[in-house]
């Protein structure tokens, strides 16, 4: 098909990446169908911290990070957990993760992510406006707190790299922290304020609202699970679902979150995707009130004020996709949170676990297939799914239309680890 021609497009997955991609493709005049096996079910888009973290350009794998890993694993309240039975499957991803932590690679990734997230807020504006969801977005900035000046100094390379890539970040004293967050306890000794940050008051309402607007605009939403891809003339041409539906398409967009690599493999594209299982608890009557989204740097968790209460979340657990949740991780996070907020009421909370699709270098996949010109991938956003949702969606629409994107997609190719 020539550029500008209306296409039949199948989008697999209706998390934030799938919905934003489908919405921007509809704006281009295409006929778009979403297939999703479990709307609002175990989607990482619905239960997360809700951040548009446009300042989070630095990859998780930093030089020297490996020195901290043993201590985290030995700490029952630590930010990292690895189930030993999963270790053999995890090692190849871990190798690439450590390889990505070189100084040169980290600098390149931060630069690429800065260009990628430059329009994180702007690209949401038309989607939120059309769906009437503007009131969900709060743009108060974020506060990162430290237990000591020494702790903040340990992160000096992180903040230097952030600022060198054009991100505004202001160091705060103890008194300046209390001006912003008077209910933080004595443990919050100093911090950093980043203005270019926002969050959604309820991520599930965002997903639901975008899905409803997608169907109002003429999109087709099928609740079913993709089972098989049929080829014609060596190119993918139709999909069969477990429910027996056959969906013909001109273009296929894979946005299936943690399950994306499995589908990509069937299409000939191999990518080292793993799953960071994140946990949180939403407290309906927390007893404390926060004005900003607060990140607790040394203990690696966040607190987000939301419409339904205060959400305490974080932690990284590697155990694969199928393993049962370990909700003791939620309890550990609440214990940590009470150290910083002594008046926190931790009762009556709703516990949640989500599967973050994570790449070794912390950069998502936004890419045409290596083998099929009519297949595109959008997955692997890790902690930045909400953050990069609209940017990725617009970029996928540009790729399908043959338009140039406004940032270099080379660092986001699916074959970059081959």
UniProtKB/TrEMBL annotation:
Keywords, in A-Z order: Oxidoreductase
Region spans: Disordered: 348-367
UniProt-recorded Gene Ontology molecular function terms: oxidoreductase activity
Cellular component GO terms, alphabetical: cytoplasm
Entry-linked InterPro entries: FAD-dep_OxRdtase, FAD/NAD-bd_sf
Keyword GTP-binding assigned: no
Regions crossing the membrane: none
Ranges where the FAD dependent oxidoreductase domain occurs: 9-399
PANTHER family membership: GLYCINE OXIDASE (PTHR13847:SF289), SARCOSINE DEHYDROGENASE-RELATED (PTHR13847)
Name recorded for this polypeptide: FAD dependent oxidoreductase domain-containing protein
Organism: Kiloniella litopenaei
Native organism taxonomy: Bacteria, Pseudomonadati, Pseudomonadota, Alphaproteobacteria, Rhodospirillales
């Amino acid at each position: 098909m020539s550029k500008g021609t209306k296409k039949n497009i199948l989008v697999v997955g209706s998390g934030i990446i799938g919905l934003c991609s489908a919405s921007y493709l509809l704006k281009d005049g295409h006929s778009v169908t979403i297939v999703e096996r479990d709307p609002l079910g175990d989607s990482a888009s619905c239960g997360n911290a809700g951040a548009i973290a446009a300042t989070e350009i630095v990859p998780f794998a930093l030089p020297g990070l490996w020195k901290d890993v043993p201590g985290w694993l030995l700490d029952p309240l630590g930010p990292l957990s690895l189930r030993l039975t999963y270790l053999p499957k995890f090692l190849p991803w871990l190798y690439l993760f450590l390889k990505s932590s070189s100084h040169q690679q980290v600098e390149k990734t931060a630069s690429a992510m800065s260009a990628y997230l430059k329009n994180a807020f702007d690209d949401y504006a038309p989607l939120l406006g059309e769906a009437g969801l503007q009131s969900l977005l709060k743009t108060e900035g974020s506060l990162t707190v430290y237990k000591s000046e020494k702790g903040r100094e340990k992160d000096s390379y992180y903040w230097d790299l952030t600022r060198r890539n054009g991100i505004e970040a202001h160091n705060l004293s103890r008194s300046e922290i209390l001006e912003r967050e008077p209910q933080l306890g004595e443990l919050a000794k100093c911090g950093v304020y980043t203005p270019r940050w926002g969050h959604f008051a309820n991520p599930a309402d965002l997903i639901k609202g975008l899905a409803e607007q997608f169907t109002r605009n003429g999109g087709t939403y099928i609740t079913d699970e993709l089972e098989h891809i049929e080829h014609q003339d060596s190119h993918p041409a139709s999909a069969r679902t477990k429910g027996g539906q056959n969906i013909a398409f001109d273009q296929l967009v894979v946005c299936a979150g943690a399950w994306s690599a499995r589908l990509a493999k069937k299409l000939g594209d191999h990518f080292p995707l793993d799953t960071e299982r994140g946990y949180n608890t939403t407290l309906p009557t927390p007893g404390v009130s926060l004005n900003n989204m607060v990140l607790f740097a040394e203990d690696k968790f966040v607190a987000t004020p939301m419409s339904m209460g205060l959400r305490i979340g974080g932690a990284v657990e590697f155990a694969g996709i199928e393993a049962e949740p370990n909700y003791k991780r939620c309890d550990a996070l609440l214990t940590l949170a009470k150290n910083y907020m002594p008046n926190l009421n931790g009762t009556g909370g709703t516990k949640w676990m989500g599967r973050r699709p994570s790449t070794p270098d912390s950069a998502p996949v936004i890419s045409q297939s290596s083998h099929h010109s009519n297949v595109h991938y959008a997955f692997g956003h890790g902690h930045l799914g909400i953050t990069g949702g609209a940017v990725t969606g617009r970029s996928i629409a540009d790729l399908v239309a043959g338009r140039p994107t406004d940032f270099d997609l080379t660092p986001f190719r699916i074959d970059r680890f081959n």
